[in-house]
Design brief:
The chain is an all-alpha fold. The chain has a single domain, classed as TspO/MBR protein (Ferritin, Up-down Bundle), CATH 1.20.1260. Helices cover about 75% and strands about 0% of the residues. The protein has 7 helices and no strands. Helix 4 packs antiparallel against helix 5. The termini are far apart.
Length: about 150
Amino acid sequence: MILRLIVFLSFNFGALALGSYFTGKGVSSDWYSDLLKAPWTPPGWMFGLAWTIIMVCFSIYLAYLWPSVKSKNVLIALFSLQWLLNVAWNPTFFYYHNVLLALILIVALTVLIGCILFLYWPETKVKFALILPYFIWLLIASSLNGYIFFNN
């Protein structure tokens, strides 16, 4: 269990590190600060805290899930797609300022995490609660991205 957890933590925090590399000044950039943002937009510091908690919970979820999955290839494919979508969002939004493509990416990621949640429900039972923070945060993030797209 510990080795699986370390592997998933490494991949997930690697994704966050890559994403933050492309974020640059991110929420403190002039471009982002000039956008009309949703009234429910959390303060900037909350994004880092939320993603840290989400990736710890998601890594624990995956470490528990791994031994009970019959088709490891399907889980690896879903995890890899999740990883790519997660990493791709930051440069798309913050570097290229392509709010529409970023919205498509984050909605796709939200749907994917929702599918993982329901697909592996029988294997995880109560532990599915560990993936809920990720799914809920993605719903919020999708709404924030959508608000920016439709109001700027």
